[in-house]
Amino acid sequence: MKKRVVITGVGAVTPLGNDAFTTWDNIKAGKSGIAESTLIDKEKVDVKIAGEVKDFNPSDFMDKREARRMGRFSQFAVAASKMAMDDAGMKVGKDVSSERIGVWIGSGIGGLGEFEANFKKFAEKGQRRVSPFTIPMFIPDMAAGRVSIELGTKGTVNCSVTACASGTNSIGDAFRVIQNGQADVMVSGGSEACITNMSVAGFSNMTALSKNSDPNSASLPFDKNRDGFVIAEGCGILVLEELDHALSRGATIYAELIGYGATGDAYHITSPAPDGEGAKRSMEEAIKDAGISPDQVDYINAHGTSTFYNDLYETIAIKQLFGEHAYELSVSSTKSMTGHLLGGAGGVEAIFSILAIRDSIMPPTINYETPDEELDLDYVPNVAKEKNLNITLSNSLGFGGHNATIVFKKFVQ
């Protein structure tokens, strides 16, 4: 018998707030965290806006000296993980044995900013000016490693690096660890701090980013005038807990994680497979794993990047899998408000999918003005909708052909 897994804590650092609940309140209100960038050199690149984390002070969550030795993405992960553990009312060694709690946090790029800064020092001033912490500041697994050290967890410590699917794959992989009895608790999600000159230049040159300099109209998921995604940063973390363990300590349960699917496109390094074939199979796998039928899904938090082919193919995949029910459920892209957090997206969007169940509300796709005749689903345009939600689904799709889907259900004992 596979163990049942529930969500007992959430934590986040995002462009819309430095905790999960401020972020969620702004999501429900349809507010945008996208603004003119302060992190990129606007003289060197042709993109001027981003979804940046604002007023984040790492020393609020960790030792100042240790924070200086971490990449920004690791700082986000430590902060969000500590908030999630506090939200779960859990202390390692008291509420869970250190050997029975693990960490699985993904990142698509890791500490690219720290790598760039130290490479510049090396190129201009030589080896002696390069920080001895350069490698542990930028390798993608270090968010998970740092969280494990800070929390004192001694179970599995892992990191899924699957581009923009990293956060969702990490949550799904952590789900399996508990299902299989290898841990009672997992701290899981995704973290990214990718707003750097090099990453913006690279994404821009592959025509993935919006060239719209107006932060109020650049991220346009499912809109006919979409022209690319808006790069963003942040972290979303969940505390996953085996059901009996959660009940035994009287934990508050947000929702149950019931299904996980992961597939590969085997098609192209950046473009999704035609008609979203891989995304369709990922959703199909997750629904089968959950033991439900497609017509039981109430809401999908879409990958919804605001790129031409993602939005088109994800829509086609949903219609092919769900049939007529595709027109009864609702689909929205919260990236219209957060921007695209790359490897951090799956973590924060999982939180939105969980809190949507708790609050009986579907977050909107803002900036939606011009319908595309090929995209004809209910994208919850511009204003959140109230609806009693029993099952929600969250999609993440990554360069390299990675597709990941997780399914949440309203908890019933």
From TrEMBL:
The pathway this protein participates in, as annotated, is: Lipid metabolism; fatty acid biosynthesis
The UniProt catalytic activity note for this protein reads: a fatty acyl-[ACP] + malonyl-[ACP] + H(+) = a 3-oxoacyl-[ACP] + holo-[ACP] + CO2; (9Z)-hexadecenoyl-[ACP] + malonyl-[ACP] + H(+) = 3-oxo-(11Z)-octadecenoyl-[ACP] + holo-[ACP] + CO2
Which chain regions cross the lipid bilayer?
A: none
In terms of SMART domains, this protein maps to:
PKS_KS
**Which InterPro entries does the entry mention?**
3-oxoacyl-ACP_synth-2 (IPR017568), Beta-ketoacyl_synthase (IPR000794), Ketoacyl_synth_C (IPR014031), Ketoacyl_synth_N (IPR014030), PKS_Beta-ketoAc_synthase_dom (IPR020841), Thiolase-like (IPR016039)
| Highest taxon of source | Bacteria
A Pfam family name for this chain?
ketoacyl-synt
Question: Which keywords does this Swiss-Prot/TrEMBL entry list?
Answer: Acyltransferase, Fatty acid biosynthesis, Fatty acid metabolism, Lipid biosynthesis, Lipid metabolism, Transferase
Ketosynthase family 3 (KS3) domain location, by residue? Answer: 2-410
Query: Which EC number(s) does UniProt give?
Result: 2.3.1.179
Q: List the coiled-coil residues.
A: none
Q: What does this protein do?
A: Involved in the type II fatty acid elongation cycle. Catalyzes the elongation of a wide range of acyl-ACP by the addition of two carbons from malonyl-ACP to an acyl acceptor. Can efficiently catalyze the conversion of palmitoleoyl-ACP (cis-hexadec-9-enoyl-ACP) to cis-vaccenoyl-ACP (cis-octadec-11-enoyl-ACP), an essential step in the thermal regulation of fatty acid composition.
Alphabetized NCBIfam families for the sequence: fabF (TIGR03150), PRK06333.1 (NF004970), PRK07314.1 (NF005589)
Question: Record's family?
Answer: Belongs to the thiolase-like superfamily. Beta-ketoacyl-ACP synthases family.
Protein name, UniProt field: 3-oxoacyl-[acyl-carrier-protein] synthase 2
Q: Which organism is it from?
A: Oceanobacillus caeni
